[in-house]
Request: fold
Amino acid sequence: MKKFNNTIKAIFLFTLLSFSFGCNKFLDINPLYTQDAENFFENKEDYERALIGAYDLLQSSFATLWVGEIASDNAIAGGESVSDTRGLHEIEAMTHNAVNNELRSIFRWNYAGITRANYLLENRNKIDFEGKDKIIAEATFLRAYYYFELVKYFGDVPLIVDKRLGADEVTKIDRTPRSEVYAQIEKDLNDAAAVLDWNNPVKGRITKGACLALLGKVYLYQDKFAQSAATLDIVIKQNKYSLIADYTDLFSVANEGNSETVFDVEYSGAEGGSYGCLICLEGNAAVGFQGIRQYNGPVYGDGNSYNLPTQNLYDAFAANDIRREATVLDIDAFIAKQPNAANITYAKGAGGHTGFYNNKYIKRQGEIGLPDNDLTSHVNYRSIRYADVLLMAAEAHNRSTSPNDILAKSYLNEVRNRVNMPDITSSGSQLTEDIWAERRFELSGEGHRFFDLVRTGKAAAAITGFTPGKNELFPIPQVEIDLSGGNWSQNNNY
Reply:
């Protein structure tokens, strides 16, 4: 997946995955390679390869881009039919249960990333070399990132640190209280931030800014507002990041890695997988899947019509907010403006049609992935943007026990001024509401909405079918509970 190291061999990822499941040796038939999991780390290049293996699971971010929107009031599942990727349709309707392929994939992929990071960290003391501390720090960040994803989705999850978990141990480990998992995430991010620099010479790799921005978000999700504000202020005051002038150019391939980039998930789009193995892709699956079904026309490429924005989202924007069209493509309005409108065609999927498409992550002509454009793309996922940092800092300052609404408004209005929207002048609880509303306008289509609604207590009012005391979390996949020998309890009301 990663663009930043062309020397990494794809076979390593398979090998490392094999190690993750406890394989100690290959078949003893005069093997060409004798290296196994226990003697793998012999030089700097081995640590780099292991780190790339841990990075590789970031490609699963497309799943959060989907679920974070489809589970909210921002989007519907769409697609060819309701039976096609049924799990997404169940999430949209809030009828999902513990047997859901999409949720199980998210659970497994993030734990695969944790296992790969733990494999490196368990072997951190094998040898010494210049730059090892940076490699260790990046692996530590990645472990924190994957655990944060798991906590957001599932709450209490088994906490495994600095070791791989053997199959015989699964029945002996419990789900760890969310507070303890959060404590480990905080420790990991603080440890990584203490080592890493604000700039990383390798494109797409973790920086101090990414560590602190994620740490600020982790604090915010726990209502640790003073700590969140202080942490995010460090990122802001560094003056390393800034909002780009043209919001409509934020998501183009040509403008990747701009001044607003705090942390991107890098995709190459150079290799495809299959519909049966989306995690095998080396590109962003969301882009092709979210394209216009059987489209024949200018600007855009065709796709599978998933994750379709709702009328509710479109109507939430002010008519003069340029972010509306930059976020939501009104396909019929777009076609009507074209000189050859009568010749432009597309199809509506039976899985639902709103007339809208995600204009941030949608396949455009000239932005192609291989070998199947509907499966992969080299469009990066903007995991943490500077605008998100500003809005999180605004919320943290506003909701602190000693609020600083003046600073909160300055951060909020910096985001609004970029798109020529008037300043917000409110304070107190109304300012809180204004900040939350701004998060929707600024970040819609990027996978944040459901989790924002849950953490702010707005989900029940906004999401049709949402059951308080249940749908704040997703169910632990039943197969994982079965594999634990029934040792893991299920989340409430599933």
Observations:
- Confidence is low (pLDDT under 50) at residues 1-31.
